[in-house]
Amino acid sequence: MNNMYIQMEVTASVNALYNAEHARAEKDFRWLKYRFPAHPLPYFLFGLNEWWKIMPEPQNTSRDGIMLAYMDTALYFAEKIHEREPENIEAAFFLSAIHGFKGRLYAERGSWTKAAFAAKSSLNYLEMSRGQKDLSPEFLFGDGLYNYYREWIPENYGILKPILRLFDEGDKELGIKQLTTVSRMAFYTRTEAQYFLMRILSVEEGEVYRGLQLAEYLHKTFPQNAYFHRYYARLLYSTGRMSSAEAECLEIIHNIDSAKTGYGPTSGRYAGFFLGQIYERTNKLEEAKKYYKRAITFSESIDEEEAGYYLYSIYHLGVIAEAQGDKKLAKEYYKKAKKKASRGETVFDNAKDKLKEL
User: Fold this and answer.
1) Residue 227: helix, strand or coil by DSSP?
2) pTM given for the model
3) Crossing angle (nearest 10°) for helices 226-238 and 242-257
4) Which residues have C-beta within 8 Å of that of residue 318, sequence separation ≥ 6?
């Protein structure tokens, strides 16, 4: 992994992976597999490639088995090296990373017990890096994630507190510093660290502008990555940069309509809602209605009918209908929003109030 020649050979392939050029990445990884058939690296990269096929449309589980199969193959070869050379730091890195990525997939699917045990296995191998200089920025990625999320998860998911008693305490501030170091110095885990920092800073820590800087960098570096694209559009909208947000959202919709790799209903429901909001605020009501309806259709196609983008798209169609003098249609939308929303949600209360007024 520290071989500069191999890193140079792999750089373009890894960049292709993150840029949704999956076929190109796979072709290069097959070459790597041919050269190193008994090493975990090519199989791990195949698995990572599958993970980034999943990321843009996470509700699609069709590639889960393929990703896990690649990771299990990488695990087999990493364990073989570890058995022969128990102190081999490279084997420890792969064992930690493989269990970590399996844990991420289990967590995405709500399999929290599996995710916790995968994380525990990952941490066991992470411990081998203590005091080691080789691969230290790569190992620091796992440390940073652990330190941050060990504290964040129980704060936000109380039901998981019993499981987390298995783990040592973390440190969120230290975790962010470690991930920042990895995002600048690591080779294999740099982009993953940047992805997590973007999410942590913009959502969990409320540092939206720092998150936007990372989102802009990731989108411009990997312009075909649908996940980075929609996150960039989301943060442009959140920071009030409406003209730029409009342009990015229109491009997202165009990419979906053109069946571009990675672009689908998840990206569409974001872009559709943001465009609806932008056009409603500028009194382009017909355009606003068009995109709110698209946000609704995208949401329904992936059973995302409890999220705010769906509920508020329905509600705002009611607001527009009312503004255009169609009280009957407005009532229909408000009733639907109230029916779909849960009691106590703001959109439920707003729809209820609107119905009383009408």
Assistant:
1) helix
2) 0.93
3) 150
4) 329, 330, 331, 332, 333, 334, 337, 351, 354
Nearest to 338 by CA among 320, 300, 312: 312
Tens place of pLDDT for every residue, the chain, 358 residues? 777 778 888 899 999 999 999 999 999 999 999 999 999 999 999 999 999 999 999 999 999 999 999 999 999 999 999 999 998 988 999 999 999 999 999 999 999 889 989 988 998 888 876 555 556 788 888 889 989 988 988 888 787 778 777 778 889 999 999 999 999 998 889 999 999 999 999 999 999 999 999 999 999 999 999 999 999 999 999 999 999 999 999 999 999 999 999 999 999 999 999 999 999 999 999 999 999 999 999 999 999 998 899 999 999 999 999 999 999 999 999 999 999 999 989 999 999 999 999 9
Which two structure tokens, joined as six digits, stand for 238?
Answer: 């959140």
